[in-house]
Design goal:
It contains seven helices and eleven strands. The chain is of the alpha/beta class. The protein has three domains: 66 residues, Histidine-containing Protein, Chain: A (2-Layer Sandwich), CATH 3.30.1340.30; 72 residues, Histidine-containing Protein, Chain: A (2-Layer Sandwich); 69 residues, Histidine-containing Protein, Chain: A, CATH 3.30.1340. The strands form three sheets. Strands 4, 5, 6 and 7 form a four-stranded mixed beta sheet that branches. Strands 8, 9, 10 and 11 form a four-stranded mixed beta sheet that branches. It has a three-stranded mixed beta sheet with strand order 1-2-3. Strand 8 and strand 9 form a beta hairpin. The radius of gyration is 19 Å and the shape is flat. It starts with a helix and ends with a helix.
Length: 223
């Protein structure tokens, strides 16, 4: 197992390895698999890249992210300007259905609301606004309301996760209640946890996924 210093160093190196973050001043601390990120960056995209880089490091069980987004004065935009750019970005993204997402902007922070049929559309809406100048953060409150009415089969979700080469499903348990799928058990990386959740979200008829998978790198060594 990695000790705290080794995990801290690995996360620091992973962040520096990303071209977008090579010059960013991001502080990293690690204790018992819990990694905390602090610092100031000049774009929301950099904040998200730092989080993604940290999640990919083996040994990270949980992430506390306290990175602040601050812009040079010349980059500041009014909320109305940001809102118009967000609407344009959503409209130009063919993955996001037109007129299904509403936008609110307050002090550079974007809130997305509405109802969509698939989770990939919800994720696409958030990603579409990541790289817009002036954005300090995004809250994605879009709800999934599937148009499929067939009952969700537990075995279908299990089979879909089992087909993925990148997910060890030997200790993943799937339960289904109505339109909700719950994942429990243990995986050996944060990537596997998120990938299992992403696959579950592709289930026709799904409205909710409760991803309660635990991340334990040591589990892979003794399992």
């Amino acid at each position: 197992m990695k000790n705290n210093q080794e995990l801290q160093t690995d996360v620091q190196n992973a962040i520096k390895w990303e071209p977008l973050l090579s010059a960013a001043e991001i502080g990293v601390t690690a204790k018992d698999g819990v990694v905390s990120l602090t610092g100031v960056v000049d774009s929301y995209a950099k904040k998200m890249e730092a989080e993604k880089a940290a999640k990919k490091v083996i040994g990270v069980k949980a992430l506390v992210e306290k990175i602040e987004v601050k812009f040079p004065n010349s980059w500041n935009k009014s909320d109305a300007e940001i809102a118009n750019e967000v609407l344009a970005a959503l409209k130009s993204n063919w993955t996001v259905p037109n007129d299904k997402v509403t936008v609110m902007v307050e002090d550079g922070w974007i809130t997305l609301e509405g109802e969509l049929s698939w989770n990939y559309q919800k994720e696409a809406a958030k990603i579409a606004v990541h790289y817009l100048a002036g954005v300090k953060g995004v809250t994605n409150n879009i709800k999934i309301k599937s148009e499929h009415h067939d009952a969700i089969e537990k075995k279908d979700v299990e089979s879909a996760i089992g087909r993925s080469w990148s997910v060890d499903d030997s200790d993943i348990n799937v339960s289904v209640s109505g339109t909700t799928v719950t994942l429990t058990g243990t995986v050996n990386s944060w990537y596997q946890k998120e990938e299992a959740g992403r696959i579950a979200w592709n289930t026709p008829g799904i409205w909710h996924v409760k991803n309660d998978l635990a991340v334990d790198y040591y589990y892979a060594l003794v399992g």
